[in-house]
Design brief:
Blueprint: H1 2-14, H2 16-54, E1 59-64, E2 66-67, E3 76-77, H3 83-90, E4 95-103, E5 108-114, E6 117-122, E7 125-128, H4 130-133, E8 151-156, H5 157-171, H6 178-181, E9 185-192, E10 199-214, E11 222-225, H7 226-235, E12 242-250, H8 256-265, E13 268-272, H9 273-316, H10 318-326, H11 331-371, H12 373-376, H13 387-404, H14 406-413, H15 417-420
Parallel strand pairs: 7-11, 8-10
Antiparallel strand pairs: 1-12, 1-13, 2-3, 4-7, 4-12, 5-6, 5-9, 9-10
Helix pairs in contact: 1-11, 2-9, 2-11, 2-13, 9-13, 9-14, 11-13, 11-14
Length: 423
């Protein structure tokens, strides 16, 4: 075996020009495969991480189902979620807690100063249970109703990216991060809309403070403790707030599917991490099919090039094969020799292809980081090459080269020694 590889290496060194363009073909194919696999893995990791950040493994988000007409604006709730609904869901045996997410039914706007610029905009106020965002807070007791002091607020992490890409770049002001925003004060105007100028019978100006950022709160608007919304709503005679969704916590992740089924039987939508990941899986299947077809076309072209090159090489080296057979080389040795040449070419071409693919992936990642944060909330990297993809691509390169050379190797081993010496 070692002698076959040594001899194959000597043949390759003496015929560099013949195998140079073959190597380029393999480099192109493996680089393409590496890039496509990395994009697939990166997309899967990105989508899954976003889903995990938004909902826990043993949580279910319950929303009303809608009866939709010919126009989307014609939709109406099929069954409204009320506080009684929360009690019904809490009675399910596997449910440990039910937290209502409510919206304050009152026009509100906010005013904030950032780097000497004043921003004023309408902003809905959502009420959520402190327990839902406790893991995202620096101090677990910071998100509690403070009637006589200030209103604690939790913002969506994705909202920071909207500001950085949508406002900071266009206005030429510095970008912000989580550390900058924490403990930042701003003003909330209750009962007043800065967009329409509407003022209710009662208006109130209150101070608010950002105490945390989370992916579990609505993207637009400000999220405050549930008790705060209920207190303010009662104060303005607007009730305890309209429930937009219920956050249901089960005993364990194994209970999520059964509880979700019961919730859907009650006429509500049940969204869970498992369901989101299943949806991601369906989308990734379509993506993998497209990427697979592209990879197949590229790799088939490389395989045809390998087959053609080595078949031509065997034909040109007929005399040399005859000499080897005449001095005792067996048919299996000839087959191994041809395959060894293919393995060596594919191995080194595969390494170069992976290096080229790595640089392409880094370039794509930088381009995506420039363009995606505005709507995807990307913080560091979109796609990152993994060692699994590196090893798979290299192994695939060698296997592809050897498989594509099996027929030329078989043909070479079947040559008659006496006839071969005539060339």
């Amino acid at each position: 075996m070692s002698s076959a590889f040594y001899l194959a290496w000597q043949f390759l060194k003496n015929r560099k020009s013949r195998f140079f363009f073959l190597a380029l073909s393999i480099v192109t194919g493996i680089a393409s495969l590496f890039v496509l696999l990395t994009i697939y893995e990166g997309s899967k990791e990105l989508l899954t991480s976003k889903a995990v950040a938004a909902i826990g493994v043993n949580e279910i988000v319950v929303k009303p189902t809608y009866r939709t007409g010919l126009l989307l604006v014609n939709k109406e709730e099929k069954r409204e979620i009320t506080y009684d609904t929360a009690s019904e869901l809490a009675a399910i045996p596997a449910v440990t807690a039910v937290y209502p997410n409510v919206v304050l039914q009152l026009p509100t706007s906010l005013r904030v100063q950032v780097f000497g610029n004043t921003f004023e905009s309408d902003a809905p106020v959502f009420g959520i249970a402190p327990a839902l965002v406790a893991s995202d807070l620096r101090r677990s007791d910071s998100f509690q109703d403070k009637a006589d002091d200030y209103i604690p607020v939790v913002l969506s992490r994705d909202l920071v990216d909207f500001y950085n890409a949508g406002f900071a770049d266009s206005l030429g002001i510095p970008k912000v991060d989580e550390n900058f925003l924490l403990d930042k004060d701003f003003t909330l105007f209750l009962g007043y809309s800065s967009f329409t100028g509407f003022k209710g019978d009662t208006t109130k100006e209150v101070q608010a403070k950002i105490v945390g950022l989370s992916n579990k709160v609505p993207l637009f608007g400000v999220s405050v403790p549930l008790e705060t919304v209920q207190r303010v709503g009662t104060e303005f005679n607007k009730g305890r707030g309209k429930i937009t969704a219920l956050q249901v916590v089960t005993n364990s992740p194994e209970d999520v599917e059964a509880v979700s089924k019961k919730i859907e039987e009650m006429g509500f939508q049940a969204d869970s991490l498992q369901k989101r990941i299943a949806g991601i899986g369906d989308n990734l299947k379509a993506l993998s099919l497209i990427l697979g077809i592209i990879s197949l076309v590229i790799l088939l072209s490389s395989a045809v090039s390998i087959l053609n090159t080595f078949f031509s090489d065997v034909t040109e080296q007929t005399g040399l094969i005859g000499i080897l057979r005449s001095v005792g080389a067996t048919k299996s040795f000839i087959r191994i020799l041809v395959c060894a040449k293919a393995a060596l070419v594919s191995f080194f071409a595969g390494i170069v292809g992976i290096i080229v693919g790595w640089f392409v992936v880094v370039l794509i990642d930088k381009l995506l980081l420039i363009n995606l944060p505005f709507f995807a909330g990307i913080e560091q990297h979109v796609i990152v090459p993994s060692w699994f993809v590196v090893l798979f691509s290299l192994l695939f390169s060698v296997v592809l080269g050897v498989l594509a050379t099996l027929y030329p190797a078989y043909y070479a081993s079947r040559l008659d020694p006496a006839e071969s010496l005539r060339y």
